[in-house]
Amino acid sequence: MATLLFMGSFSAMAQKKKDPVNRILFIFDASQSMLGRWQSGRKIDIAKKLLSNMVDSLQNIENLEIGLRVYGHKSGYPPQDCDDTHLEVNFLKAEFAVDIIKKKLKVIRARGTTPIARSLEEGAKDFPSGDARNIVILITDGKEECGMDPCAVSRLYQRKGIILKPFVIGVGLDESWKKSFDCVGRFFDASKEADFTNILNIVISHVIDNTTAQVNLLDENGEPTETNVNLTFYNDFTGTSKYNYIHTMNAYGNPDTMVIDPVLSYKVVAHTIPPVSISDITLTPGKHTIIPLITPQGELEIKMNSKIKYQYIVRPAGVDTTLHLQEINEIEKYLIGRYDIELLTLPRKKFYDVEVNQRTITTYSISTPGLANILLPSKGYGGLYVKNGDELEQIYHFKGEKTQHRLTLLPGNYKVVFRAISAKNHIYTTEESFKLRSGQSELIKIY
Fold first, then answer.
1. What tens digit of pLDDT does each residue of 393-415 get?
2. pLDDT-based confidence at 376, cuts 50/70/90?
């Protein structure tokens, strides 16, 4: 019984974590410019009326808290008061907050300046701590007038994870100012009164509507058959990771459905080798979005009978960049294509232009290494060379530190070149050639 109660309690806690509180802070512009005309009346009056209607519709939404911050309404202009931004209604459950916000909007008068950055900064601090989706909806008709940078403030608090990407609703905004809000958040242009209501509905849907997505990992035929790949959803604005999932197929053999926050736009990365990504992914609230990534894969393996766990470098064909480091006798998936391989044996073994095809294993078998036991008459200098036809490639150095060198080498033809430390003339250099066979040991004595 105790176990069942604990499991039930744990399940309830897990569910609570999955459903954080939604908090909306409306930041409302009551600066002097809001006294300007806008279609049927003054901007301030129309915006207050439309916002009142909107919060009214939020009253019965569960798991929602709302608050109101206003700027430009306490101090007249001139003089300019860049601290004129105030939290007028602290966060309350929607059912309690709506009437208070509506009453507060009725008494607000447009008077002062436009401290947008300061309002965003103070607004980010208004949100209580704890697990929540913190949404800022900025309603304004003007640009920053207090010398701060709204973009920098917005980016800072998004990176800190305090707020999600703000929504900015421009109320009859001057055309030349619109682009300045692109870096603040997701901008909506309410050039007409009717637009304002539609935009608020769109914004609110981002907050309350469950939104789903699936990532289709496509093979070379364009079919979503690839799976078991790590996926990361990055906040496209801040570059921080938001979700990390392992791609899977559901019981019907289709890519699994994920619940994704539609407030953000995303860069989605499939951690294949090499990785594949797609940017500027925007989700429509309440709708299912399919995100395609072209990720056809094949497999690569190098087999070797060896007690040493050799590794090999995999590079894109013709490109001197390390893509992956893989161990022998292990299978790894790669995107289909051509690769160069460098096996970290002694000497190095290289394969060029290796082709990886979809759903096949490209396999290379390497001969078992042998053991060369090199005995020097004294400490000295020189090294070991591998013979490639008439060419010699030095693969190991004698540094004057020891007289015995035990080396695991690939089968092949080799030459030892040596000169004792005490020998002060080059004519005392000695050479010894030997052949090493697969899996065999050779004793090489230098006299």
1. 999 999 999 999 999 999 999 99
2. very high
Helix (H, G, I), strand (E, B) or coil at 159: helix
- Helices marked H in 90-236: 94-107, 116-126, 150-159, 193-208
SS3 state of residue 408: strand
Distance CA 194, CA 188 (A): 13
Checking if the pLDDT of 437 tops 70, the result is yes
Phi-psi region of 252 (alpha: psi -120 to 50; beta: other; left: phi over 0): alpha
Q: Report the C-alpha dihedral over residues 198, 203, 209, 210, rounded to 10 degrees.
A: 130
- For position 209, what pLDDT does the model report? 81
Residue 357, classed as helix, strand or coil, is coil
Reduced to 3 states, what is the DSSP secondary structure of residue 213? strand
Name all domains of the chain by residue range, CATH numbers in brackets. 20-208 (3.40.50.410), 212-294 (2.60.40.1120), 297-366 (2.60.40), 370-445 (2.60.40.1120)
Taking each helix axis from N to C end, the angle separating 193-208 and 43-57, rounded to the nearest 10 degrees, works out to 30
Both tokens of residue 1? Answer: 């019984």
Question: Among residues 102, 143, 150, 101, which one has the least CA distance to residue 123?
Answer: 150
- How many angstroms separate the CA atoms of 237 and 219, rounded? 30
Give the C-alpha separation, 307 to 305, whole Å.
7
Which tokens sit at 426? 């080059």
Burial of residue 196 (number of CB atoms within 10 Å: 0-12, 13-18, 19+): buried
Q: How far apart are CA 109 and CA 429, in angstroms?
A: 97
Distance CA 295, CA 239 (A): 23
User: What is the side-by-side strand order in the sheet with 167-171?
Assistant: 85-93, 64-71, 21-29, 132-140, 167-171, 186-190
Q: Give me the pLDDT at residue 182, please.
A: 85
434 CB-contact burial (10 Å; exposed 0-12 / middle 13-18 / buried 19+): middle
CA distance 329 to 306: 9
d(CA 447, CA 375): 9
Q: What is the pLDDT of residue 1?
A: 45
